[in-house]
Amino acid sequence: MSDQFLDAALRDAYLARDVVTARAGTALTTTCRSQQTSDLPSSGSVECRCGAAAGWRVTIGQVGSWWRDDLGRAVSALVALLSAAAFTVVGAPASAPTPAAVTASVSASVPASASAGVFGVPFEVFSGHGPGSVALDDLRGDGRTDIITVNLGDATVAVLLADGHGAFGPPQLYPTGPGPSGLATGDLNGDNVVDLAVSNQYNATVTVLLGRGDGTFGVPVAYPTGSGPSGVVIGDLTGRGTADLAVSDQFDGTVAVLLGRGDGTFGPPRLLPAGPGPSALAVDRLNDDDWSDLAVTNVADGTVVVLAGAGDGRFGAPRPYLTGPGPSSVSTGDVTGDARADLLVTNAGDATVSVLPATGHGTFGAGWSYLTGPGPSSVTLGDVTGDEVDDLAVANAGNATVSVLVGRGDSSFAPQRIYPAGPAPASLAEGDLTGRGGTDLAVANGRGSTVSILPAGVGVGQRQPTCDAHPGSPDIAW
Ligand SMILES: [Ca+2]
Ligand SMILES: [Ca+2]
Ligand SMILES: [Ca+2]
């Protein structure tokens, strides 16, 4: 094994003393190269030492897929986040099967994202061209979080199956209609297998793909919607326990409701007025009855409207609330801690995210907003820092970044921390993509062909690891 440190100071220290000192959050990367991909290990361990403490073995796992280097060799990156203050690397990954065929190198680096405190080393997986929306779900029922994207550039939906340790298979592509925009996952036919719904903006349809349970899908079936469908959600809109579809129709100012028959087929669209330029929608219980309601952003007048469900597939008149200019997406979640869903809206016109709190009477307050990057396109609410307080994550289409606003636990959020993603992030989703139990982010890079994955790292608010951390504690191995 050769030892190559990306950081010259770390390299010199290591060569001089076999010990390097690195900050908590340092990423240890072991890179394996081989002429044959079958030789590449996907996991292993290296021995490390923390100060004068006894050595321990750190488990490392493959991050991303393998790739080819300049010499045509297959390369696999194995990464662990070190929480120790100092370490010695002893030996190659234990799983390297044929040392003669595999060369491995070890590097240590302190990426900007790790030093900033929330995420580990980001990586990208290929998705197909122009992914405009990304969703995460367990498509095979194996407890692993798979990635699904819709790709505007080639009119496809891509399925990337997870190995459970942060690596994903190549995209399996299924055709959609032209201009696929929105994506929703859920069980549409009651067989407990995740299905997909995709809104197709250019031909006024929604495509339904029924899952087979093995990560593959049946023949796509299209149903008509209103004009210019921008987003789609799956929910039980009738209270019958079967899944229905709702689609925001950007060109004709409506929401299309398609009632499910329970077998994965859908009835004709019922078009409800929603306001000028519906750009996105969300489904949740937004008042205090038991029925699902809809929230729809209107890009043309800077509002989000709430359509209260009557529980039989019908909805009340749209009730508007002001957002910032150019609202581009809406999510729901309880920010205020009263167990009522609040509204989260990204405003592309002024680079903010708005929180509209539920008042408890089926209405929403004026709310407050926070700065994001330019062109925010998508927001999620979840705990990405590991302190059990929900945080906001926002994809910024205008500058290839993600903003994380760390929740303070009092309904407010700290100013944004900025992390790099790929070109024109159009959508993001949260889930455990690396199999470590943390909350990772997946970002669809709308003007690229990849999904950026920001793996949960040593986080703000987490217990800061020290040299006293004993081998095997959660913040040493991953
Ligand atoms: Ca199903
Ligand atoms: Ca609330
Ligand atoms: Ca948090």
Automatic annotation (TrEMBL):
It comes from the Bacteria. Residues 457-478 are annotated as: Disordered. InterPro entries: FG-GAP, Integrin_alpha_N. Keywords: Signal. Transmembrane segments: none annotated. This is VCBS repeat-containing protein. The lineage of its organism: Bacteria, Bacillati, Actinomycetota, Actinomycetes, Frankiales.
